[in-house]
Design goal:
The protein is α+β, with helices and mostly antiparallel strands. Helix content is 18%, strand content 36%. It has 5 helices and 30 strands. A hairpin with a 3-residue loop joins strand 28 and strand 29. The longest helix is centred in the middle third of the chain and has 32 residues. The chain is elongated and about 135 Å long.
Length: 471
């Protein structure tokens, strides 16, 4: 019997082969993930492309209307009934209102169906037009205007319903033996029923308190009201001439100093007029503006305070956002100290340098900085060639100038090259959102200023000089 051999099975171990391709792929994958994560967390800088444009920077004011207004008081006590709409022109002899001591007239008109009569279609159309006009022009900030609108609509309905009342008024009074007073206009003019004690106000009476609307009140009588003898019943404006007075700041007074007329825009009325302009001194010693007109008086008969704009010439140039504008400090160095370096045409300064061997003078060229007729403007930079306290020497002279005087220039950060570069600007005009600036630069060469289609940082406070950017 053959002896069996003992066999020991040893597992084969495969050699560990490093997969270089997988390692490289993993490194690239991790690099991509890192960049995506860094990109998502990085504050992205928004840019703005410079365009040509203009802005309208009209000045807004609240003015006080002055008119030649004559108040007419009731001669007797009684119940009043009006027969003419607010703002209508009355000729001499036109019936304005009636006074009934007993109050029976109103009852008789109702009994005869006068007040319940339907208005004609053309009258209804006019009332709808007035209501639509108010809805389109109303402002949430001026809620009190709703009362004036309501009063105007009531006056219109009163006038239209009074047409039929006038036809039957005489007949009703004869049949009922009713005695009442009928008041007619003694002069021709535009009639108004709102009395506010400003009717006799003159420019010499104006002071700052005159424009305080919190203290302003207007009393209005309506048909059916009981009024006492001597109480104002209505007023009439006989002249088409009227004025608007308004406060003037010192800047505004200088702005309009050479003007004799101004273009006025009443936005709520969709109306633009040219008014004669002058100034006067009020009761409080302040300067006020005055606009005189001879048209559209009746259109504003219900208003005492009026919002308006004074149109300004439109400024044209490069249009940029206000948020893109920043300030940068520059050293002011006299041009008389400028020198040329050796055989080159570079402009710079001979700067004193101190060492253990003593004092020497080194020519330092200027970089892309700015200038005017008297100075070169060198950016204040801790890593720059010039710092506060450095001395420069005038060519062919022993005169020395210590750098230190600074000036702040307005500018934007240009990012055409992928990094932030300060470019000086000259602002022509501005409003709350945009500036209009000159193309090129006043303090330097045109290529160092701003041009159309340049890309600039939208928010100048978000970057710094020389910062690399990713658009």
């Amino acid at each position: 019997m053959s002896k069996k051999k003992n066999r020991k099975i040893i597992p084969y171990r495969r050699p560990h082969n490093i997969n270089v391709g997988m390692i490289i792929f993993g490194i690239i994958f991790l690099y991509i993930l890192f960049n995506i994560f860094a990109y998502l967390r990085r504050d992205r800088v928004q840019f703005y492309e410079v365009v040509e444009g203009g802005i309208v920077n009209n000045k807004q004011y609240t003015g006080l209307i002055l008119r030649d207004e004559q108040v007419r008081n009731a001669q007797n006590s009684g119940y009043i009934n009006y027969y003419l709409r607010e703002g209508k022109r009355a000729s001499m002899g036109t019936r304005i209102y009636s006074l009934d001591e007993t109050g029976r007239l109103d009852s008789l008109l109702k009994e005869n169906g006068v007040e319940d009569a339907a208005l004609p279609e053309e009258n209804l159309a006019d009332i709808k037009k007035q209501l639509s006009s108010y809805v389109l022009s109303r402002s949430d900030e001026d809620f009190s205007s709703i009362y004036d609108a309501r009063y105007s609509l009531e006056a219109s309905v009163m006038e239209y319903s009074s047409f039929s009342a006038l036809d039957q008024l005489d007949k009703i009074s004869q049949d009922s033996s009713l005695v009442f007073e009928q008041v007619r206009a003694d002069i021709s003019g535009v009639v108004s029923y709102g009395i506010d004690s400003y009717e006799s106000l003159q420019p010499s009476d104006i002071d700052a308190d005159s424009f305080n609307r919190a203290n302003y009140t207007k009393n209005i009588h309506k048909s059916g009201d009981l009024i006492e003898s001597g109480t104002p019943a209505y007023k009439v404006a006989a002249s088409e001439n009227w004025s608007i007075v308004f406060p003037l700041s010192s800047d505004d007074a200088s702005l309009y100093a050479d003007k004799t007329s101004l273009t006025i825009d009443f936005r709520d009325y969709d109306l633009t007029v040219v008014a004669a302009y002058s100034t006067f001194t009020g009761k409080d010693g302040a300067t006020y503006g005055k606009l005189d007109m001879d048209r559209y008086m009746a259109q504003f008969i219900m208003d005492r305070f009026i919002e308006f704009e004074i149109e300004q010439p439109q400024s044209r140039g490069l249009k940029i956002p206000v948020t893109a504008v920043t300030d940068k400090n520059f050293y002011m160095v006299p041009k008389s100290y400028a020198a040329q370096g050796g055989d080159s045409t570079d402009i710079g300064f001979n700067k004193e340098v101190y060492s253990a061997d003593g004092t020497s003078v080194v020519f330092v060229p200027l970089n892309e900085d700015y200038e005017d007729d008297e100075f070169y403007y060198i950016a204040v930079d801790d890593e720059g060639d010039f710092k506060a306290g450095d001395y420069i020497v005038r060519p062919d002279s022993s005169d020395r100038y210590q750098i230190g005087r600074t000036s702040s220039l307005q500018g934007v950060y240009n990012i055409n090259k992928g990094y932030a570069v300060f470019r000086e600007i000259t602002v022509i005009d501005e409003n709350e959102e945009y500036c209009i600036v000159e193309e090129g630069s006043v303090y330097g060469l045109a290529q160092y200023g701003l041009s159309v289609y340049d890309h600039i940082v939208l928010d100048a406070s978000s970057v710094g000089e020389g910062q690399l950017l990713y658009q």
